[in-house]
C-alpha cells in the first residue's frame, strides 16, 4: 500500500565525516605552509614598477596653481590662472541658452540613455562641421569631409594625433608654436610622434614673431605637420592677421605641409563665429588636406561635459569622396578601440542649440556677452596700468584677443604677486582675462604697478 501524503519523509542521510588526515597529506600541507611563509615577505617588498622605471611625476602646473589658490584664505585673493569663463562676481556662468536646451531635453518624451553611434550624434556632428567649416564650404558640398564626435577638444587632438601616427607617410614631426597649450606636446609624444617648435611669441613686442614663424615653417622638411591655433591663441592671445594667414598658406602649400588646426575658442574670441573660423575656411578654399579639432567647452560653458568634434578634410579631386570614406572607416576603428561611444549630454545640449534658429541666435548673443566682458576687462586693465604710470608699454593687453593674455611679467614678478598680493597666474605671466572683474581689477593693477616699478 502506498504511503499517505501525510507520512513523514525519512530523515536525510548524515554527511560523511571528513577523512582523517594521513601522514602524506599532513606533510604536503606543512610543505605548502613553509613555502608560503618564505614567499609572502619577499613578495611584499617586490614591485614590477620601481622608482627608476616609474618615477614620481610632477603635479600638473595649472591644477597645482588652482590647488594653491583654493588653500589661500586671504579675502584679497584673485585667480587669474583659471581657463574657464567667470562672470563679474568671479562665478561660473551657465549660459541662459544652455539652461533652455537643458529644459527641452528633460521634457522630451524621446529622451533615453542608449549608446550614441561610434561617430557620435549625427545632428551634432553635421552642425558642428557647418559651424566651423562653413555651411557652404566646398569640403561639405563636395563631400570630402568626415566628422567624429570626441571627448572635447583634447579628445579631438588625441584622435588626430593617433590617426596621423598610424597612417601619415610624410614627415612625422609635429611643429608647435613656441609657446603652445601645455598638453599638445604630451598628446603627440604619447602616440609616438616627435615635436619641434616654430617661433611665435615675441618677448620684445609682446606680439607675434611673424618673420620667425614664417622662416621656421619654410625650413621644416616637406610634408611636415604644422599645428595652428585659428583664433585666440592659447596661451598668448596673439593671432596672425588674415593677410598673415594668407602668407602662411602660400608657404605651407609650397612645402606640402599638413595643417592641424586646434580650435578651442570659436565665437569666444571675437564674438563672431565666422571671423574666428576664417583661417580654417581660407585654407580649405585653397585646396589643403587638413584636420580640425573643435571644442565646445568654452563657447558653450560645457567644460565638464566634454563635448567636442574632429573633422578631417581631404583635398579636391576625383577620388576625394572615396578617400574620405576610407579615412572615416579607419577613424571609426580608432574611436571604437579608444572610447567606443562618445558621451551624450554635452553634445545633446549643443545640438539642440545648433539646430534651432532661435536658440542659435540667443547663443550668439551669449557669446557676445562673454567676449564683450573680456574685451572690456582688457581695456580697463590697460587703462589703469597706464594711469598708474606702470613702467613699460601695455598696448599688448588690448592688442591680444581671447581668454588669455601674455602680460610680459617675469617669473620673479609673478611669484611676488602671489606671495605678497595673493594674485595667482602661471609662472610665465599668462593671465586669464576672465578672472578679472570690476571688484578686483584695481587691486590687480595696483599690485602689478608696485611689483613692476620695484624691479625695474
Automatic annotation (TrEMBL):
<dbReference type="InterPro" id="IPR015424">
    <property type="entry name" value="PyrdxlP-dep_Trfase"/>
</dbReference>
<dbReference type="GO" id="GO:0004069">
    <property type="term" value="F:L-aspartate:2-oxoglutarate aminotransferase activity"/>
</dbReference>
<protein>
    <recommendedName>
        <fullName>Aspartate aminotransferase</fullName>
        <ecNumber>2.6.1.1</ecNumber>
    </recommendedName>
</protein>
<dbReference type="Pfam" id="PF00155">
    <property type="entry name" value="Aminotran_1_2"/>
</dbReference>
<dbReference type="InterPro" id="IPR015421">
    <property type="entry name" value="PyrdxlP-dep_Trfase_major"/>
</dbReference>
<comment type="similarity">
    <text>Belongs to the class-I pyridoxal-phosphate-dependent aminotransferase family.</text>
</comment>
<feature type="domain" description="Aminotransferase class I/classII large">
    <location>
        <begin position="77"/>
        <end position="448"/>
    </location>
</feature>
<feature type="compositionally biased region" description="Pro residues">
    <location>
        <begin position="9"/>
        <end position="19"/>
    </location>
</feature>
<dbReference type="InterPro" id="IPR004838">
    <property type="entry name" value="NHTrfase_class1_PyrdxlP-BS"/>
</dbReference>
<dbReference type="GO" id="GO:0006532">
    <property type="term" value="P:aspartate biosynthetic process"/>
</dbReference>
<dbReference type="GO" id="GO:0005829">
    <property type="term" value="C:cytosol"/>
</dbReference>
<dbReference type="InterPro" id="IPR004839">
    <property type="entry name" value="Aminotransferase_I/II_large"/>
</dbReference>
<dbReference type="InterPro" id="IPR000796">
    <property type="entry name" value="Asp_trans"/>
</dbReference>
<feature type="region of interest" description="Disordered">
    <location>
        <begin position="1"/>
        <end position="24"/>
    </location>
</feature>
<dbReference type="GO" id="GO:0030170">
    <property type="term" value="F:pyridoxal phosphate binding"/>
</dbReference>
<keyword id="KW-0663">Pyridoxal phosphate</keyword>
<keyword id="KW-0032">Aminotransferase</keyword>
<comment type="subunit">
    <text>Homodimer.</text>
</comment>
<dbReference type="InterPro" id="IPR015422">
    <property type="entry name" value="PyrdxlP-dep_Trfase_small"/>
</dbReference>
<keyword id="KW-0808">Transferase</keyword>
Amino acid at each position: 500500500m502506498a504511503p499517505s501524503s501525510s507520512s513523514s519523509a525519512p530523515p536525510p542521510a548524515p554527511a560523511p565525516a571528513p577523512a582523517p588526515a594521513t601522514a602524506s597529506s599532513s606533510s604536503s600541507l606543512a610543505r605548502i605552509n613553509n613555502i608560503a611563509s618564505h614567499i609572502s615577505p619577499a613578495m611584499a617588498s617586490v614591485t614590477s614598477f620601481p622608482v627608476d622605471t616609474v618615477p614620481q611625476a610632477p603635479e600638473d602646473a595649472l591644477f597645482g596653481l588652482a590647488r594653491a589658490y583654493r588653500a589661500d584664505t586671504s579675502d584679497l585673493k584673485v585667480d587669474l590662472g583659471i581657463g574657464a569663463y567667470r562672470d563679474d562676481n568671479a562665478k561660473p556662468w551657465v549660459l541662459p541658452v544652455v539652461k533652455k536646451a537643458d529644459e527641452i531635453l528633460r521634457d522630451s518624451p524621446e529622451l533615453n540613455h542608449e549608446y550614441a553611434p561610434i561617430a557620435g550624434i549625427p545632428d551634432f556632428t553635421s552642425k558642428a562641421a557647418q559651424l566651423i567649416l562653413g555651411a557652404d564650404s566646398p569640403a561639405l558640398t563636395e563631400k570630402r569631409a568626415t566628422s567624429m564626435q570626441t571627448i572635447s577638444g583634447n579628445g579631438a587632438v588625441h584622435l588626430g594625433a593617433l590617426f596621423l601616427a598610424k597612417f601619415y607617410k610624410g614627415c612625422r614631426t609635429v611643429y608647435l608654436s613656441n609657446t603652445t597649450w601645455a598638453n599638445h606636446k604630451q598628446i603627440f609624444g604619447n602616440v609616438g610622434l616627435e615635436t619641434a617648435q616654430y617661433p611665435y611669441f615675441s618677448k620684445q613686442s609682446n606680439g607675434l614673431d611673424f618673420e620667425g614663424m614664417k622662416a621656421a615653417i619654410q625650413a621644416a622638411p616637406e610634408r611636415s605637420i604644422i599645428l595652428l591655433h585659428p583664433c585666440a591663441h592659447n596661451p598668448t592671445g596673439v593671432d596672425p592677421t588674415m593677410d598673415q594667414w594668407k602668407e602662411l598658406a602660400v608657404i605651407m602649400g609650397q612645402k606640402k605641409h599638413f595643417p592641424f588646426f586646434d580650435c578651442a575658442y570659436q565665437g569666444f574670441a571675437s564674438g563672431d563665429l565666422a571671423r574666428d573660423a576664417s583661417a580654417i575656411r581660407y585654407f580649405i578654399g585653397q585646396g589643403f588636406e587638413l584636420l580640425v579639432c573643435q571644442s565646445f567647452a568654452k563657447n558653450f560653458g560645457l567644460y565638464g561635459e566634454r563635448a567636442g568634434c574632429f573633422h578631417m578634410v581631404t583635398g579636391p579631386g576625383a577620388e576625394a569622396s572615396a578617400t574620405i570614406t576610407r579615412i572615416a572607416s579607419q577613424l571609426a576603428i580608432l574611436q571604437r578601440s579608444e572610447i567606443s561611444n562618445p558621451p551624450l549630454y554635452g553634445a545633446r545640449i549643443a545640438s539642440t542649440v545648433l539646430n534651432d534658429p532661435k536658440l542659435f541666435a540667443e547663443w550668439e548673443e551669449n557669446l557676445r556677452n562673454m567676449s564683450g566682458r573680456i574685451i572690456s576687462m582688457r581695456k580697463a586693465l590697460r587703462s589703469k596700468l597706464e594711469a598708474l604710470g606702470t613702467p613699460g608699454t601695455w598696448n599688448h593687453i588690448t592688442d591680444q584677443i581671447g581668454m588669455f593674455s601674455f602680460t610680459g611679467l617675469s617669473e620673479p614678478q609673478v611669484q611676488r604677486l602671489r606671495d605678497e598680493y595673493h594674485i595667482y597666474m602661471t609662472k610665465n605671466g599668462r593671465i586669464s582675462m576672465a578672472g578679472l572683474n570690476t571688484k578686483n581689477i584695481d587691486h590687480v593693477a595696483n599690485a602689478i604697478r608696485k611689483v613692476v616699478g620695484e624691479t625695474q
